[in-house]
Write a structure and sequence with these properties.
The protein has 156 residues and is mainly alpha-helical. The mean pLDDT is 88. The strands form two sheets. The chain has a two-stranded antiparallel ribbon with strand order 1-2. It has a two-stranded antiparallel sheet with strand order 3-4. Helix 1 crosses helix 3 and helix 1 packs across helix 4. The two termini are 26 Å apart.
Length: 156
C-alpha cells in the first residue's frame, strides 16, 4: 500500500488542529510546525475543507479549525478525502476487478488487503493519535497493537 505525501500532510495538519481546538491555526503555522511545504499544504487543506474535515474563517482572527470533533475523524476519513479510493490497481478501484483462469481468486485477495487497511485506518481517530503520542506509544508498538487488534477481530 502506498501512503501519499498528500495523505501524510493532511493527517499531520489535522493533528496540529486537533492539538489546539480552541483557536484557529493558519496554514503558515501548520506548515512551519510540521515542516510541510506551504503551497502544497494550502491545496491539501482546501481538499480537507471541501470534505468537511476542516472549516475556515477569513480575516485577522481567521484560520482553520477541525470541521468535526477529533474523536470523530479517522485516518480513513482523511485518506479518502485527499486520495479517494484507499487502494487502486493501476489507478482503477478494486470493486469491479475480475481475472480469468488461474488468477480468478487474486482480486479477492486485493479486496481483503483493502478491507484490512480500511479497518486499521478506520479504527484510528485523531484523538487516539494525540493520546498515543502523549503516552509514548510509537512506531513498532503501535503497529503491533493494530495488527493484534485485526487478529482479534478476525478470530471473533
Amino acid at each position: 500500500m502506498h501512503i501519499s505525501a498528500k495523505a501524510d500532510y493532511a493527517m499531520r495538519a489535522l493533528l496540529e488542529l486537533a492539538r489546539e481546538p480552541s483557536r484557529p491555526l493558519t496554514c503558515e503555522a501548520i506548515a512551519s510546525s510540521q515542516e510541510i511545504p506551504f503551497r502544497f499544504l494550502k491545496s491539501v487543506v482546501g481538499e480537507l475543507r471541501r470534505a468537511g474535515l476542516v472549516r475556515s474563517q477569513r480575516g485577522c482572527e481567521g484560520g482553520y479549525w477541525l470541521g468535526r470533533s477529533a474523536e470523530e475523524i479517522t485516518l480513513l476519513d482523511v485518506t479518502r478525502a485527499v486520495d479517494g479510493e484507499l487502494i487502486t490497481l493501476r489507478g482503477e478501484p478494486l470493486a469491479g476487478l475480475d481475472y480469468p483462469g488461474p488468477a480468478t481468486g487474486l482480486p479477492d485477495v486485493w479486496r481483503e488487503v483493502e478491507a484490512g487497511a480500511a479497518a486499521v485506518l478506520g479504527g484510528v481517530t485523531l484523538t487516539s493519535l494525540l493520546t498515543r503520542g502523549a503516552t509514548g506509544v510509537t512506531g513498532a508498538a503501535a503497529a503491533t497493537a493494530a495488527t493484534e487488534g485485526l487478529a482479534r477481530r478476525g478470530a471473533a
